[in-house]
UniProtKB/TrEMBL annotation:
SUPFAM superfamilies recorded: Prefoldin
Protein name (database record): Prefoldin subunit 6
Source organism superkingdom: Eukaryota
A cellular component term, taken from the record's GO annotations: cytoplasm
Tagged with keyword Manganese: no
Cross-referenced PANTHER family: PREFOLDIN SUBUNIT 6
Keywords, sorted A to Z: Chaperone
Chain segments annotated as transmembrane: none
Species the sequence originates in: Desmophyllum pertusum
Family statement: Belongs to the prefoldin subunit beta family.
Keyword Chaperone: yes
Amino acid sequence: MAANFDRIQQQMQSELEKFKACRKKLISTRQQLDAQLNENKVVQEELDVIEPDGSVYKLIGPVLVKQDLEEAKQTVGKRIEYITAEIKRNDTGIKDVEKKRGVSQEALSKLQHQYQQFLTKAAAKA
């Protein structure tokens, strides 16, 4: 009987570790997305300061290629939209993992309580 409880407890612990790893990955992704968003916002601010006849260059590999100002603004705007959507999707994933972790923790707590009751009864019989 005790072996069953140990096995169940180990399974629950294994599941919690999986959730922690998944959450850690999602948070790491979120941090990367935030950094990209901030970088693109800085670029957007710089593009807004450039006069209409100013020059903009895009780095493609080892070469700087002249780019139209409006095209550059559109590209950065689309990147910001994409990154913002990815952040929302990532936040949803974090919330889902948190919900699942809460359910798993409740189940583990119940199993630990049952295990303690089992040990108390076993000690009383001995």
